[in-house]
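Example for tutorial group B:
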C-alpha cells in the first residue's frame, strides 16, 4: 500500500459541480473506492431488510394457512362422522 501511495501522490484537480479541489491522486482513488464500498454496503443492507420482511410475511401466511388446513380437516372429519352415524341409523331401523 505504501508503494501505491508514493507512486500516486501527484496532486490532481478534481471538479465536482461548482467546486474544484486539488488533492492527491491516491486520496481520490482510495476515496472513490471507499464511497463505492459504502454504497454497495447500503444497497446490500436495504436488500437484506426487504428479504427479511418478505420472509416474515411468508412465515405468517404459512402459519395462517396451516391453521386453516387443520380447521378444514376437522370440519371434513366431523361431516364424515355425521354421514356415518346417519347411515348406521338408517341401517339399524
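The residue assignment follows.
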Amino acid at each position: 500500500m505504501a508503494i501505491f501511495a508514493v507512486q500516486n501522490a501527484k496532486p490532481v484537480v478534481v471538479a465536482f459541480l461548482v467546486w474544484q479541489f486539488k488533492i492527491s491522486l491516491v486520496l481520490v482513488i482510495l476515496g472513490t473506492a471507499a464511497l463505492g464500498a459504502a454504497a454497495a454496503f447500503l444497497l446490500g443492507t436495504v436488500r437484506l431488510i426487504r428479504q427479511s420482511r418478505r420472509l416474515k410475511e411468508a412465515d405468517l401466511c404459512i402459519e395462517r394457512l396451516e391453521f386453516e388446513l387443520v380447521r378444514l380437516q376437522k370440519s371434513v372429519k366431523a361431516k364424515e362422522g355425521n354421514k356415518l352415524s346417519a347411515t348406521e341409523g338408517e341401517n339399524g331401523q
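The two ends are 98 Å apart (CA to CA). Compare this with the pattern of hydrophobic and polar residues in the output above.
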